[in-house]
Predict the structure.
Amino acid sequence: MSRAPRTSARDIPLTALARGARLAALPLGFAGRTALGLGKRLAGHSAEALAAEVQRRTGDHLFRVLGELKGGAMKFGQMLSVFEAALPTEALGPYRAALTLLQDSAPALSAATVHTVLAAELGEDWRERFESFEDEPAAAASIGQVHRALWADGRPVAVKIQYPGAGQALLGDYDRLGRAVTLFSTVAPGLDAQPMLDELRERVGEELDYRLEAAAQQAFADAYRTGREVAVPEVVAFTERVLVTEWLEGTPLSAVIRDGSQEERDAAGLAYTRFLLSGPERAGHLHADAHPGNFRILPDGRLGVLDFGAVKRLPDGFPPALGALVRLAMAEDWEGARGLLADEGFVRPGAPLDTETLRSFLRPLAGPSMAPSHRFTRQWLRGEVTQAALAHRRSLLRSINLPPEYVLVNRVVGSAIAVLSQLDCEVPFQAEALRWLPAPADR
């Protein structure tokens, strides 16, 4: 787990004016880079080379600013970072480090600020609850940072502390991030980030209340406690802004992506797939923050799962229609799929939906289910993104209406497929999809 550089709370812009100014600088920087590129083109440089340079610099600037701001900007950056596998090959190198930073760490709060939050949440005698507490954070992310400690009974624990002002920053950022959405389309053409931003805005209250996160995490811990594939830390104590859980040691999934052998990447991909698909049936929840920074490979081979701030309650499992759609697509029954989509409210009234557009919509989930196993690669994902972009230009956006109950599920599926493509792994996806995405009994 990477260490985060220390900063003070005042280093994080908290006022709407300051944060708005930083976000406003994004399109201004893009305009400057574009103008510079035009000047170079007039001077004889090739259009392709200049476009790649603008793309590289835009990506670097975008993710760096999102990371520095924390709050909603950081959260949005983390969500975008899972789509690294879909980025053009020539754009990967210059800012992959920035993506990794967004997944694993961010500038940390000072010890004095941390102590103030702990005193307010756990009481002035908060130190008596711990045998020891490390002031240096182990990791820092969008709205909180994590410290290692020993609980009073000697258990190693992770203490997650919410940044002061995170709520205000989170709410304000989502109203100002339209500029970043536009820029991401420059960095990764074909990916539509606006629905992700809209969904984040709707779920902001859940992200800020660690009591809700504690309840969700304990539900997962109870569901997977006796299994041999997944490890979820037990909840030890919690308040609205502080969450204490058992410490989970392991190799970050991002390290497996970077350095893992094919065998290790395949095993991680299967465990990751199975956990995400099995959560609704086993725990009644869908883990909805699927970026690599939230997963570890433990020394005993289990998949360790962290951060349950973003979940969707699915007490009855996945919507049965989701499993039915996968089965219809596997059978290439496009008329049946079109009818089911209309029944479920996916098709706008009176909208045309040709077979190729329908395939483009269903392919990311149904495609990997067509054969007993599927090899997820960056090249494959970039092809899917290209097809989706073509479908958007035809009629997909005019035809498809994503019902509210499917928005988060759709985002998690897209994020998971992107992470699997980063892993470059082969997974028996068909069996997992058929096992965990049940079809209605009458279909």
Remarks:
- DSSP finds 19 helices and 14 strands in the chain.
- Residues 111-165+207-223+232-246 form a domain with the Phosphorylase Kinase; domain 1 fold (CATH 3.30.200.20).
- Residues 1-17, 26-51, 91-106 have pLDDT under 50 and may be disordered.
- The chain has three domains: 9-105+167-205, 111-165+207-223+232-246, 320-436.
